[in-house]
Amino acid sequence: MFKRILIANRGEIACRVIKTARRMGIETVAVYSEADRDALHVEMADEAVLIGPPAAAESYLVIEKIVEACKKTGAEAVHPGYGFLSEREAFAKALADAGIVFIGPNPGAIAAMGDKIESKKAAAQAKVSTVPGFLGVIEDDKHAVKIADEIGYPVMIKASAGGGGKGMRIAHSTAEVAEGFNLAKAEAKASFGDDRVFIEKFIVDPRHIEIQVLGDKHGNVIYLGERECSIQRRNQKVIEEAPSPLLDEVTRRKMGEQAVALAKAVNYDSAGTVEFVAGQDKSFYFLEMNTRLQVEHPVTEMVTGIDLVEQMIRVAAGEKLALAQKDITLKGWAVESRVYAEDPFRNFLPSIGRLVKYRPPAESAASGITVRNDTGVQEGGEISMFYDPMIAKLVTHGPSRAAAIEAQTHALDAFYVDGIRHNIPFLSALMTHPRWREGNLSTGFIAEEFPQGFHPRVPEGEVARRIAAVGAAIDRVIGERKRKISGQMIGRAVIRERRRCVWLERSEVPLDVIREGEAFVVRFANPDGSLGQPHQLLSSWMPGDPVWEGTIDGHPVAVQVRSIPNGFKLAHHGYEVAVNVFTEREAAAARWMKEVDKADTGKKVLCPMPGLIVSIAVAEGQEVKAGETLAVVEAMKMQNVLRAERDGQIKKIHAAAGATLAVDAVIMEFA
């Protein structure tokens, strides 16, 4: 077994590999760019080597620097993680030439399967069902349009190298093919250094299901069940689970056996994933093979009890698989949410900056429920504009799908992040969505259920009452602390009014609250003024705690708490709402207060995120039509097209191509 390995990656996956290596008694070496000097993976590793400037193309993607770091530190093997160099045949070969072991598949398997075009050809030769498409060289956007017209719409334009949603577009018309082709090529070039793309038929209402395979260097290959990854936004996976609510044992076995056959055909000898697009009728087609560890591998680990990173290391060291197919059983259900530094209320645009507070739910295993948090950040760290915006992967496991979802819902409510915007409100909303809970999924789920994007909502019904009750209890605790402050006037005792009017934004919830021992008892007012049944709230929350965690009538509840002027903001189940707790007299006065009007920025085009202006497509004085491209902004390797929302004339342009702008900086103004 290796004594020392180097992790040629950063962030969450580097930390993940270090944890397993440490458990196996293997020393670890981290590499880092100047932007990652204070990163968590650098702190966790036994040794760390600086490999260059922040840009990945000058650090994490430079093979020579990784090889040199291995020689400098005496690392015997390299784990590539995912992304960066993980699927580069040249990287595996360069390591081999230097006498260093690559903890991943052999270069031949990478060449055959890592390239999306070549993998489809190999799959077709192996008589694996594939999606209709064009796998040859596409000369230009006109050629792309001709191909798409022949295949029939909609089509998928996809980068041949890499994955993660980069260099991928769905086109429903000729115009969308032309633009999507050029954008996909540009993103592919920026992300992978390879601008080749291919076009294939896009299956309507599909599900994304993938099979985890594991092979060794002795010809043994097994599959470890499937993962459902249908909840996606812009082709980027958001939530994954294992197993899939669609599959039955027969379909699972067919997909698994097909994945194994394909892996054996290319002598696959590590952990890898065969991805399929599946119809609602359980039909399935080969999509691609990822010759690396997947981002979502934890859900497979949770339902099988197998550490995939450990298996990759053992296989790379020449060991035979200690497991046979008959040994693989799926136990319970696992759900994973990807926590990203992006603002769901601003069309999921990247959010960078300092993690002023980072308080994930505690990892635990009790009463049949496991909570796991794979992360590469820590409080005080910085989310950089140079890399993927992932903060963490929150995973829950339970005896059933419903139990795993309930655990995930509670864990998200308890996941507190401040300093940047993040997608936890959106993830929480997904967890409580009826269609998700029913398992009625497709890759179009988010687009169909949130066609206008994700916007702030005022809670209603049971959720509103729960938030109002917690708000009243918090206000009561704060009030009790204030009355204990020394130096106050001595006089008659103040009798606290029990009746309160809790405002959720400007929606009123009248109630009665009183302390009874360690608990607070809340009764909601009926329309006729009478009080309903009592609800008991128990919590050890104290002012300053970021999360109110306790029970309401014995049921676990977590609510995030943030101070705002004259109140606090509570976040729960995907709702973020300003809460004010008034006495009846205060509420009467507050009703006369006028809402503050927001500043009108309707004639200005603002930079939606911190990023680089790639291009400006218009000129001052130019007349534009609604839908026309105004500018392209790039951040975190993704290019975002800004379009005119209405017809108009460009009055002034404030930014030029190549400029780096802050969020809400003015790019141009309309007349």
UniProtKB/TrEMBL annotation:
Reaction(s) the record says it catalyses: propanoyl-CoA + hydrogencarbonate + ATP = (S)-methylmalonyl-CoA + ADP + phosphate + H(+)
UniProt domain ATP-grasp: residue ranges: 120-317
EC class: ligase
SUPFAM superfamilies in alphabetical order: Glutathione synthetase ATP-binding domain-like, PreATP-grasp domain, Rudiment single hybrid motif, Single hybrid motif
The protein, known as: propionyl-CoA carboxylase
EC number: 6.4.1.3
UniProt-recorded Gene Ontology molecular function terms: ATP binding; metal ion binding; propionyl-CoA carboxylase activity
Cofactor(s) essential for the protein: biotin
NCBIfam families the record matches: PRK08591.1
Residues annotated as domain Biotin carboxylation: 1-451
Coiled coil spans: none
Domain Lipoyl-binding: 595-671
